[in-house]
Amino acid sequence: MADEVDAVGSGALEVIADAMGVADVRPEQSMSDLHPDSATLLQVVGALQERFDITFDVVDVFSAEVVGDLVRLVREAVATRSRAS
């Protein structure tokens, strides 16, 4: 289970960086430092949902203060999906 969580976290960071067009991101990195616009955040949402076959509330993405908040959303959605199956 821990390996899956680590894989989800690492994968989410990769997807977020790619969707934002940056080389990499760190969980503690402030979202405001990345200067994402609404369109970019929607791309991040779409990429995360596609990669992990999950859904989550887009409003939560817009309220994320640090990249780790997005990773947490992905981990929670993956865990919820796993419990449901």
Automatic annotation (TrEMBL):
InterPro entries: ACP-like_sf (IPR036736), PP-bd_ACP (IPR009081). This is Acyl carrier protein. It comes from Saccharothrix tamanrassetensis. Residues 1-78 form the Carrier domain.
